[in-house]
Amino acid sequence: MDAIRKMKWKKWLKIALIVYVLGAIAIYFFQDYCMFHPVAMRKDEKYNFSQPHKEINIPVNKESNLNIIRFTTSDTLPRGVVLYFHGNKKNISWYARFAPYFTKHNYEVWMIDYPGYGKSTGTFNEQTLYDWAGQVYKFARSRFAADSIVIYGKSLGTCIAAQLASTHNSKRLILETPYYSMTSMARRYFFMYPVDWLFKYRFPEAEFLQKVEVPVTMIHGTDDGIIPYSNARKLKKVMKPGDEFITIDGGSHNDLYNFPLTVKKLDSLLQ
Length: 271
Hints:
This protein is of the alpha/beta class. 38% of the residues lie in helices and 19% in strands. The protein has 10 helices and 10 strands. It has helices spanning 2-35, 92-95, 100-103, 126-141, 156-167, 182-189, 195-198, 205-209, 229-233, 260-270, and strands at residues 37-38, 53-59, 65-71, 80-85, 89-90, 107-112, 149-154, 172-176, 216-221, 244-248. The protein is globular, with a radius of gyration of 21 Å.
């Protein structure tokens, strides 16, 4: 009887090990599919934006095109520019609705699409996102002084924005639904796996924030089901004097602008 039980135990242990290994393989090879949800567009497609805008394409190399939408203001002399780095879904078309919150204060808004998103092409990887942010900043500096540049990130884009602010001068950094790091997020869902080995993406936002010298404003909702409030709250550890963490009670991942506190705070920062 003991021999039979031992055989059954070994059998189930073998099955569990196979399932575990298959899970690790799935995490490694399908992480891009699970984390990023781009919607590509043809080069000849027209954007249907109600607000004034200009489309800019920067050929980074033979395979890569950086697409920028520059939302303009009615004033011929804008106060500054907001470099807006969006989240992990769709493309600029999804985030264009937020541009008026900035242009009403006479700030231009420059949004970029990452490789594979919208009309941008090329190979998607973490370093490319940082490099492209630097390209946009360089382009912005040809038109605006550093103290007229506001760097803004939402969700995935908060780490891109933080990295840019850690290496380039600006007026302020604003982060909507930030996170401590991508690996810290992964550990929440895959606690049984060595995510530091399996994940190709690090996005160490907290590390970048420690190097940011300008004031930082972070905004996060308590009911965020994508990036848990508890994960974002860990960023308080790296806040410096003058930084602020705004809690939106009942706010989730994509509705923070429905709360007066978010809009009021943004207005106060841009006025």
